[in-house]
Amino acid sequence: MRDLGAGFRYLLKGQRWVARHGRQYGFGLLPGLITLVLYAAALVALALWGEDAVGWATPFADDWTSPWQGLFRGFLTAVLFALALLLAVVTFTAVTLLIGQPFYENLSEKVDRDVSPDGHAPESGLPLWRELWISARDSLRIVVRAALWGVLLFACGFIPVVGQTAVPVIGFFITGFFLTEELTAVALQRRSVELRTRLTLLRSRKALVWGFGTPLAAAFLVPFVAVFLMPGAVAGATLMARDLLGEEIDEGGDGGEAGDQAATTFPQPPSGSPAPGR
Questions:
Q1: Where is the sequence biased in composition, kind Pro residues (predicted)?
Q2: pTM of the entire structure?
Q3: What is the per-residue pLDDT across 92-140, written as a single tens digit (0 to 9) for each?
Q4: 119 within 8 A of 113, measured Cβ to Cβ
Q5: Cα separation, 179 vs 216, whole angstroms
């Protein structure tokens, strides 16, 4: 339970950090706004022409009598739109981070410098095109994992009682985990931490991850909220990345109480994981 509360505090402290650094917050909004416009256009197009697409994909139902044809195709259209919404929620962070890579890298570095006792921020030393390639590759792997979970949970949703109670709750926790992975990746990639090691770190502190990512996943269901929370989410995830790697957080910076705990009680990364920095 302590980790669960610490994760939520990191989320709040990230929002507080960007509120104190208005210029960074303003730049951090741009990628989210661009992604929101793209996703909104895609969902509107699906709402307008989704039924036609389902009709084209199910020619075998052309000769079905009423009302079975309408019910069948209406159900498939609803399923298609629901899957599109789920995919939009799961991939929104990945696409926004990819579009806003330079913005969020800069924001994350400033958070690191602000809370580091020596004012140092780890740097990858890689050219921008290489960082974009690594980010896109890892994001695709995470999206595939999340999509598989999404299909499984969607299927489980048809189980009576369980599908309407436990499945949505599990879905929020899973979505929160993957959102946290995407957000902490901004800081961890600068430290040359590979995807497999990042997942190991997150799994070792599931309560911390859920405390940060689950309420964020719920908030991200509202697109406009996702846009405005994204810069603070990146800032909070940077603080949490330092926690996961056992790096000290200056209690005089914006890390606050949770940062002080990180400096004294949080464990070191699992054996075999890369050391912070290069």
A1: 267-278
A2: 0.72
A3: 877 888 888 788 888 999 999 999 888 787 777 777 777 778 878 887 8
A4: yes
A5: 8
